[in-house]
Structures are given as C-alpha cells and as structure tokens.
Amino acid sequence: FSTGEHGLQISALTSQGPQGSLDGDLGILSDENGWTVHMDMDIQARDAASGRELQFAGTNWLGRTGHARLTGRGRTSTELLNAISGDIALEGLYRGSIDIPVSLSAQLDNHPEQFALENLTLDFGEGRLSGSAKLSGTTRRALTVDVKGTSMDLAVLLPAGDTEPQAGIAIPKFLGELP
Prior knowledge:
The protein has 179 residues and is mainly beta. It is built from two helices and eleven strands, in the order E-E-E-E-E-E-H-E-E-E-E-E-H.
C-alpha cells in the first residue's frame, strides 16, 4: 500500500484464511475536487465442495464466491455515497435442515441525489426476488423499494418447534368463526 497527501492506495490486497481468500485493490483519494474511491474485490471459499464455505458472522449463511467492483467521486461524503457505481455479487447457501442455494447480485447506479441498487436479484432455493431499491433525499431521507417475487418460501428460516400459541397470547375470536 501507499499513502500520501492525496490519500490511501492499496494496490494489492490478499487475505488467506482457513476457509477462503479475499483478493483485490482499494483506493481512497482526495484532492481539491473532492474524494475518489475505487474497490475491486473477489472472495472465494477455499473448498466449498467439502463444506468449507465462508461463514457469515457465526450464522447459518455461508458464502462460496463473490465480488464487488465499485467506483465513486464526490466533494462531500453524501455526494460520494450518491456517486458510487459498480456491481456486487455473492453466491452461497443457507444451512438449515437442508442446504438451500442463495445468490445476490445488484448494480449500484450513480443517480443524482440518491443511492440506488438496480437490477437487484436475490435467489433463495427455487424462489427469486428482483427489483430495485433507492435511498434519496438529503434533509429527509426516503427509501423506495420495488421488488417482485416468485415462489419465495422463507419458512425454513423460522426456528423449528411447536406452532401452538404460547400461554398468555390470546387468539382473536373472529379467527374461530372463519371457515
């Protein structure tokens, strides 16, 4: 890496661990015109076929491969956030009672005055969510989400167990009157 009056440049970043590797480069630079960032990262599980995926924060979400390629330029941090563009992708699985393949991909677009995820796709088993999400505004932030889904069964994410109501939680009477 190198540092100087204009910021930090990491020309080659490699991290190897027992479960996988991270490779890429990163730059955070500034000059009289503002800030410039770029990131090009790849993540790869060491041996996904033998069940050595990359575990996310001690959960049942496991990653196999992914990448992030982002660039942006702005005079302020808000302008920089709104100017980031590029693409991200991650593939892996959810390890529950059965292993369910998961993939996520999106393109970050640099629309003025908003942080936008376009061509957002989440595949979970046989199901798919696709669409976009945008965070806009400066004084009062607005989140706009437009997604469509098909066959998304999320029941496997719920803890297994008794589905009977717990003591102290009354079942509304009108539910017993419906056919």
